[in-house]
Design a protein that fits this description.
Elements lengths: L25 H15 L4 E3 L1 E3 L2 E3 L4 E5 L2 E9 L4 H20 L2 H4 L1
Parallel strand pairs: 1-5
Antiparallel strand pairs: 2-3, 4-5
Length: 107
């Protein structure tokens, strides 16, 4: 009689720190400046309120750059009490299907 084997989970990828950025070298400094300029072109980031399939934009919460408070980096919609009720109801509806999903899918 064979002994059943326990299911195995796949191992997470190995961890490696980011390499040290050599800012004393001109190409590394320029690469960082280029990346910051590219990011700057996408600001401000917009963070909507998402409830189920419903999306609401807004700018009720303004996030600024601590180094330059005049620079707006993100705008977020604010959720109110009715949004909280709607989010809880949407989560309850989704929970039913999620509870029936196989563990491999949920993982």
């Amino acid at each position: 009689m064979s002994t059943p084997t326990a299911p195995t989970a796949s191992a997470p990828p190995s961890f490696a720190n980011e390499p040290v950025l050599e800012l004393r070298r001109a190409p590394a400094r320029q690469g960082l400046l280029d990346a910051l300029a590219e990011l700057d072109a996408t600001l401000p980031v917009r963070a909507p309120v998402l409830i189920g399939g419903d999306r609401r934009e807004g700018d009720g919460l303004v996030s600024t750059d601590p180094g330059d408070p005049q620079r707006v980096v993100a705008l977020a919609a604010l959720a109110g009490p009715s949004d909280v009720d709607a989010a809880v109801a949407a989560a309850e509806r989704a929970r039913r299907g999620w509870a029936q999903a196989p563990a491999a899918r949920r993982a």
